[in-house]
């Protein structure tokens, strides 16, 4: 399924040209150039105006690239579905005309694109003053500012996770007026395409946390059945629509700041010495549901399954960079861009320190295989970055551009998203600049069997079987897993049943599976099982979420506590 | 004071020879060879018998090396003091003859040197059956077994920390008889020398946790006065008597397993490129007093001062090893031996993984300067190993032998001492083989001002000034310090007032000093201040000691909690 013909921006355009269709002369390079300009001028420019908004088919081609005939042909060229906004019941009135409110023109809305004049947006027929909300936007201030002074409708086609009752009601609470009828953003079948129409088919066993972009995790018991997570069971955390891949024309560009140093195709990458490592990848928000139970959080409510453990094969990034004569002292960071692109043309991006990229012991890979096969589309085909021991967000999928730079990635996801804060920081006082981007992840563990509220038969020896995983970032090995059924009065040491036998000292990237028969008090109707892991730096987990709570709900590594009923 | 003429074993012997004194032909090489034999056969051999016991002047020359005339001349050659065992009041009866008990000969005692026959020792006129105690020995089973079937008297001259009421009473509880008068170990002024007689003069402000070996820490407020800890304030943790240093004849031997590869003098080491790093060194037992308050512990009761932050200058071990063509795949570990030697001739020892030693980014130094000057004698003159980010115990002082090996150091301190365990492990069920040796230390922090029970005036703005340090091992940077005065209901972010500005990415070895004016509830008579740090891996500290308690009292990194009175 994942090998269906997909196409990159460049590939799509060239195919259209081959069909004799009229296109603009803007190919990938110009697209790219405009993205850079976008990035560089992100503080100055306004994005997302209805008049220029990017109605994304490939996620990166702007609306002005399309002539009508192209649009129609694209429509038939790939089998897309018209995008339908489906509101949940209580939010369905959001954006409807309200007779008691004044009417504004889009011109008036567009004058409110800054903090001095205030920030307005339109949604359907509604006009909203979101000035006070901007810095509380869970997706980050820079993201919401892309729609400032314009319609949010096209953005919400890509970030379809906004179509919830909660968010629509919140939006409506900021309502100030109606939009003049002729300015209302028009959804027409012929010019609105669902950028999610060609997502790969997924395992139906996955629990879906978000459909668009697709985010899903396996049930916990399924997770610990295998040391190497099968691709069908591996959690998916996409930030944007899965891009269209044109294998034949795929290119990876390597640049030093703005200047291209070299381009590679997949075969070029495969010529470098091949390395295979086993590495877990974990989402920064794994176990967020537990932190959110302590105090409410926005964001996907992951259970314990936003982690998977796979073998990854590819070229060492350090080999590629050494081959190009890259010197550590010339740069501070190395940025990665994916082919997944948001409505304003900005690709998914992230960066890691240059020292890690250049350190052969850090084992950063440009990976083309997962578990011995081509990487599945959901996991980054044809090439993804593997930064073992580092939060999933930096393991950029569908990578097609690598930039050596003095600066971290300008991406929203690097600057204003995957960061940790003190429990005292809230959406009113947060300053994302004060915290470093999450890179290596702290030690964690989770109980996968039994699950919460499960009824368990106590064995004759007075024990119940408990299984789970443990992992620590930065190459730290798990050295011990302690489990208690009596709030820490007695700790029992779990057996570490699976670890990577090939890991080198200080380079333990795989997870550890553990298991034990946990003694319990038979007289009790229920017990709460707690687990904590210790890594080779003898770091261990904090006990509660209260003291590590952070507004974005990352780094949820307090003791995992699962209450079960005894039978 | 620290430059007084001191002498190594080899140097001492050569000086004696130069004086025309008769000595055996056993020089350093034979000493060394006998040490190796000792190590290799540690399971089979019995040590410490009265008849062959090492009456250590230099800590390494065995009794049989001495002829009477040498002994007398040594006596006058260096100005030593007779060693006097001084019992504390309640333990003073330990070892005294008890008429109601049977009498044994030393021959009978010596037959009890194994677990099958039982393990006996003598102390003064007493005979003790310590069979059940052996595995509970806080100093480790192998250490106490050195005295099995013999007298413990000479060992307790070196490990003088046994001379406490608690230990003497414990010993007496195992009493089974009296030793025949003629077999009683005899302390005579002319053949008993105090191996601690020539210790350097120390700063009287240091709080002494143990005199012999010398262990002391500065008062907490003094600790955080300077980012670079002055040598006089730097904590001292010696495991054995400070060795006698003969600068002129000092040699560092580098061996591959048993085979010497090369010897260096200090000038040879100084020819390598010189590197200076700022690195904290922390004792594995720092803050043990807090863990011991949770549940009693044996071991030195360190407050928060068993840490210091200095600049260290030396050659990179990786440069030295690369120069010798050492290949990582040939070894697993690199062992270090100090010149400080126990009564049975075994030097202090430790090891680190070979990968760390060979990694230029790990910054392991053979250091000859501390804070820009010769390293003080208490801190390892003329050469010590600096393994930044790693527990103090592996930063071997007075190093004179480095061994590339497949194995970890056989030293007691590597095998059976500096390791962490689950809270459920006690002296009855501990198996030291189950835990890895502590290397990189977990994240920690401490409040240095105010101190416990101090009375603090609340400022007009409702705050009290709080200061301290934070540190994490493995090169992790401290990114945040959170402080609370209300059990975590509100956390306040401290200002990080001093960090190493020259640290490279991922190589932050120095500590961080922090400070804040902490808002407190003025209406309260007292508040408990808590601190926790977060490092660049976003690891943080566990909340309480209960769940990290371990029988040796290491890795005491729970929140530091200081109760103060408000005035």
Automatic annotation (TrEMBL), chains A, B:
Metabolic or biological pathway: Sulfur metabolism; Energy metabolism; sulfur metabolism
Record GO terms (molecular function): metal ion binding; sulfite oxidase activity
Keywords on record: Heme, Iron, Metal-binding, Mitochondrion, Molybdenum, Oxidoreductase
Annotated Cytochrome b5 heme-binding domain residues: 101-180
Primary site of residence: mitochondrion
EC number(s) stated in the UniProt entry for this protein: 1.8.3.1
Alphabetized InterPro entries for the sequence: Cyt_B5-like_heme/steroid-bd (IPR001199), Cyt_B5-like_heme/steroid_sf (IPR036400), Cyt_B5_heme-BS (IPR018506), Ig_E-set (IPR014756), MoCF_OxRdtse_dimer (IPR005066), Mopterin_OxRdtase_euk (IPR008335), OxRdtase_Mopterin-bd_dom (IPR000572), OxRdtase_Mopterin-bd_sf (IPR036374)
Segments crossing the lipid bilayer: none
Localization, UniProt: Mitochondrion intermembrane space
Protein name (database record): sulfite oxidase
Organism: Trichogramma kaykai
């Amino acid at each position: 399924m994942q090998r269906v013909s997909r196409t990159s921006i460049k590939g799509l355009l060239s195919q259209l040209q081959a069909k004799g269709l009229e296109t603009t002369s803007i190919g990938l390079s110009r697209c790219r150039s405009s993205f850079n300009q976008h990035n560089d001028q992100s503080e100055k420019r306004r994005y997302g105006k209805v008049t220029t908004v990017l109605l994304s088919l490939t996620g990166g081609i702007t609306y002005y690239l399309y002539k009508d005939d192209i649009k129609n042909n694209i429509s038939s060229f790939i089998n897309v579905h018209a995008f339908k906004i489906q509101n949940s019941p209580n939010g369905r009135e959001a954006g409807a005309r309200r007779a008691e409110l004044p009417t504004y023109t889009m011109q008036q809305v567009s004058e409110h694109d800054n903090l001095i004049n205030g920030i307005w947006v339109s949604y359907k027929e509604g006009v909203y003053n979101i000035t006070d909300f901007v810095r509380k936007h869970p997706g980050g201030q820079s993201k919401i500012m892309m729609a400032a002074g314009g319609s949010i409708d096209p953005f919400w086609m890509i970030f379809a996770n906004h179509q919830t009752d909660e968010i629509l009601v919140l939006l409506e609470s900021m309502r100030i007026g109606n939009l003049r009828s002729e300015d209302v953003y028009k959804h027409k079948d012929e010019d609105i395409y669902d950028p999610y129409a060609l997502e790969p088919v997924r395992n139906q066993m996955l629990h879906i946390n978000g459909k668009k972009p697709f985010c899903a995790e396996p049930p916990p018991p399924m997770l610990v059945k295998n040391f190497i997570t099968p691709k069908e069971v591996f959690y998916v955390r996409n930030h944007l629509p899965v891009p269209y891949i044109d294998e034949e024309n795929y290119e990876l560009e390597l640049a030093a700041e703005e200047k291209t140093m070299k381009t590679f195709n997949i075969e070029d990458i495969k010529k470098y010495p091949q390395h295979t490592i086993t590495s877990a990848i974990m989402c920064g928000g794994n176990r967020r549901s537990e932190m959110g139970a302590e105090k409410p959080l926005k964001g996907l409510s992951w259970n314990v399954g936003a982690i998977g453990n796979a073998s990854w094969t590819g070229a060492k990034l350090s080999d590629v960079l050494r081959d190009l004569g890259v010197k550590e002292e010339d740069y501070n960071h190395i940025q990665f861009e994916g082919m997944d692109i948001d409505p304003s043309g900005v690709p998914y991006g992230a960066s890691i320190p240059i020292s890690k990229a250049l350190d052969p012991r850090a084992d950063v890979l440009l990976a083309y295989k997962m578990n011995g096969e081509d990487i599945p589309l959901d996991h980054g085909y044809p090439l993804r970055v593997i930064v073992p021991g580092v939060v999933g967000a930096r393991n950029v999928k569908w990578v097609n551009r690598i930039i050596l730079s003095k600066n971290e990635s300008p991406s929203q996801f690097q600057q204003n998203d995957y960061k940790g804060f003190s429990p005292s920081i809230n959406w009113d006082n947060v300053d994302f600049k004060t915290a470093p981007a999450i890179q290596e992840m702290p030690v964690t563990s989770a109980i996968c069997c039994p699950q919460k509220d499960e009824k368990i038969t106590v064995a004759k020896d007075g024990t119940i079987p408990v299984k789970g995983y443990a992992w620590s970032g930065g190459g730290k090995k798990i050295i011990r897993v302690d489990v208690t059924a009596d709030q820490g009065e007695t700790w029992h040491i779990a057996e570490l049943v699976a670890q990577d036998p090939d890991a080198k000292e200080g380079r333990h990237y795989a997870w550890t599976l553990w298991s034990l028969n946990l003694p319990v008090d038979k007289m009790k109707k229920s017990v709460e099982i707690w687990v904590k892991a210790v890594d080779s730096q003898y770091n261990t987990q904090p006990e509660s979420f209260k003291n590590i709570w952070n507004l974005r709900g990352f780094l949820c590594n307090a003791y995992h506590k699962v209450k079960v009923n005894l039978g």
